[in-house]
Design brief:
mainly alpha, 13 helices, 63% helix, globular, disordered N terminus, disordered C terminus, Probable 2-(5''-triphosphoribosyl)-3'-dephosphocoenzyme-A synthase, glycosyltransferase
């Protein structure tokens, strides 16, 4: 895959090809997640979903603005021998820089804050892995990094997701990462494989993967916008679509339209599930047995 265009002024040669390749995969995962249709309540190729301030072009611009930070995160992982506080703090600092870049690209609109956290950890973990790319191994490594302390992390951010965690007693994006991304490994990736295996078209398989995450996730974006009633509507509706055979069936498509109507009526948007879908795409697309180009191996000087 050709490297994605970087923002003006960024040096292409600042990182080795392996770091650039991992950043490319992360940005592509974000762009493909944004464009995927139909997604209930989310920005997609049809429109803005439940969002008055977002659109597909803005999501794409935001994703591309994150490329330099993802490349630096990959490079940081490649320079590490194992998960460590130093790596955790480096990834945290790069994540805060990435958020600032996102805000500059979007005029102050939060498009990918949660995805920066989840994909940043996974990109760093993928860089750290020396002898192949196992989705489960990378997710476990990312979880180990996430559980380490970061002295420079703000105690409180005031973000909607953080407030929803406090108000509703759920783990949120931080808990998902610290647990090693269970909804990606046990819901998103398995449903993606299952849908492909039964012959669903790739876009349908990807939407089904999103629904598999939605039916299990305590999505803080939905809780912040629509409370527990909105969350129950999302989880139960997603479960019904999958029970009908997913969106590759007529019954599944009808149920998806019902779910979307209900979510739009209560202004619910599963942004947390969307972030985990992008993480699913990233892990799904990693080369299965090739380490990043120019990555140091343990014992290298």
């Amino acid at each position: 895959m050709a490297s994605l265009a970087l923002p003006a002024g960024h040096r292409d040669d600042a990182f080795n090809p392996g770091a650039i390749a991992l950043a490319d995969l992360a940005v592509k995962a974000l762009i493909d997640e944004a464009a995927l249709s139909p997604k209930p309540g989310l920005v997609d190729g049809r429109g803005n979903g439940a969002h008055a301030d977002l659109n597909l072009d803005l999501m794409r611009a935001s994703a591309r603005a994150l490329h330099p930070a993802f490349a630096e995160m990959a490079a940081a992982g490649m320079c590490a021998a194992q998960p460590s506080v130093a790596l955790r703090e480096r990834l945290g600092a790069l994540g805060r820089e990435a958020e600032a870049a996102m805000m500059r690209a979007t005029g102050g609109i939060n498009t990918h804050r949660g995805a920066i956290w989840s994909l940043g950890l996974l990109v760093g973990a993928a860089g750290l892995h020396r002898h192949g790319h196992s989705a489960h191994g990378i997710a476990r490594t990312a979880g180990a990094i996430a559980r380490l302390p970061d002295r420079h992390r703000p105690a409180r951010t005031g973000n909607k997701g953080e407030r929803a965690c406090i108000d509703y007693g759920v783990a949120g994006a931080r808990g998902q990462a610290q647990a090693g991304f269970p909804h990606v490994l046990r819901a998103g990736l398995p449903e993606l494989m299952r849908s492909r295996a039964r012959g669903d078209a790739e876009p349908s398989a990807r939407v089904n993967a999103l629904l598999a995450i939605m039916q299990r996730l305590d999505d803080t974006c939905v809780l912040a916008r629509a409370g527990r009633e909105g969350l129950a509507l999302m989880q139960q509706g997603a479960s019904r679509v999958l029970a009908a055979g997913g969106i590759g069936t007529l019954a599944g498509r009808r149920l998806l339209r019902q779910l979307e109507g209900g979510m739009l009526a209560c202004n619910a948007s599963p942004g947390g599930a969307a972030d985990l879908l992008a993480a699913t795409f990233f892990l799904d697309r990693l080369p299965p047995a090739a380490r990043p180009a120019n990555a140091p191996v343990q014992g290298d000087k």
